[in-house]
């Protein structure tokens, strides 16, 4: 028996005709960039999340980078985040010239420990990026309270949390902006790369829309005026709306969701709640069968809905257990084996081993097991039987 940790092929096969028909329509249309599917998907995703605006882009990393710029984060600013996340979270902060400031995790949720954030706030702090880790929302009430007190921007890293709920609201609708990845393995994944920025702030939406296309067009003009604090430019004399892409007002980048991915994502979005329900059913079975064992099972915070992008267990013998799982053809992995404060690229920040003990423990003792929607009952039973050898 071979069971992948994530099985993109199975996900495609289940609704193959639907996805392939949508893709073929795009291929035959000759319209591949920023077409009607992109516009429609932005509208549909905004409605799903419950926000006014959704701005698509090339990938989740770009979403973070663009959101930081759109929220006014500048070189030298400090941005608080967690050291236990994918590198892109801190990479985006550094890529705009800002300084990542790490705060340890909550051992129950694996998310940033909101009770420790305020101690990290300085005069240079301008934003907080909580990561909704593995699909579990962070403690947004406490984070937003700290942000309001210190006049900070909150940008949600929702790359792993499409569809997750916090007190009745979707992630991506809990701060100033939300950032999503549609990498193929994600809860909502496309057949390539894709990303999205969500917000209820018109200025952030306009700035993000301009930045993703080289800072050009009417949104670029509006953002220029907003940044300058007055209406120095106007449509009548400063831009020809018949060729807006050739009028540049701020420095941007090229980060567009292509029409093919948008068409596929539109179809997958209609199945997302079903995908989540099945992931949660698998997680519940794991929780039930492993509850009274030596494994530490994931926590689900009251008034939140974890979508289980990944299902992670904690155990002191994680490496031995992973070796046994692999020997039996079961996909497994550590997300993530090196916390960000110990990555060589951030050695100039001056952190050392021991600074964030919870993140370091999670990196050493957590491992993931298959939880994808198409996982079969007999496969899950087999996984549980192998795990119980160490229980």
Give an overview of the whole structure.
- This protein has 391 residues and is α/β, with parallel strands linked by helices.
- Helix content is 39%, strand content 12%.
- The chain has helices at residues 8-14, 16-29, 36-49, 60-70, 88-95, 140-150, 202-211, 217-228, 235-238, 259-269, 272-290, 318-327, 357-365, 377-387; strands at 53-57, 78-81, 99-102, 125-128, 153-157, 165-166, 169-170, 177-181, 195-199, 304-305, 311-314, 366-369.
- A seven-stranded mixed beta sheet has the order 1-9-8-5-4-2-3, sandwiched between helices. A three-stranded antiparallel beta sheet has the order 7-6-10, with no helix packed on it. Strands 11-12 form a two-stranded antiparallel sheet.
- Helix 5 links the parallel strand 2 (78-81) and strand 3 (99-102).
- The protein is globular, with a radius of gyration of 21 Å.
Give structural attributes.
391 residues; alpha/beta; seven-stranded mixed sheet; three-stranded antiparallel sheet; 14 helices; 12 strands; 12% strand
Helix content: 25-40%
Q: Strand fraction band?
A: 5-15%
Shape: globular
Structural class of the secondary structure composition? alpha/beta
Helical run tally? 14
> Helix and strand string, N-terminal first?
HHHEHEHEEHEEEEEHHHHHEEHHEH
Q: End-to-end span in angstroms?
A: 22 Å
Q: How many individual β-strands? A: 12
Average pLDDT, rounded to a whole number, is: 97
Radius of gyration, whole Å: 21 Å
Question: How can the largest sheet be summarized?
Answer: 7 strands, mixed
Strand line-up in the sheet with most strands: 1-9-8-5-4-2-3
Task: List low-confidence stretches.
Answer: none
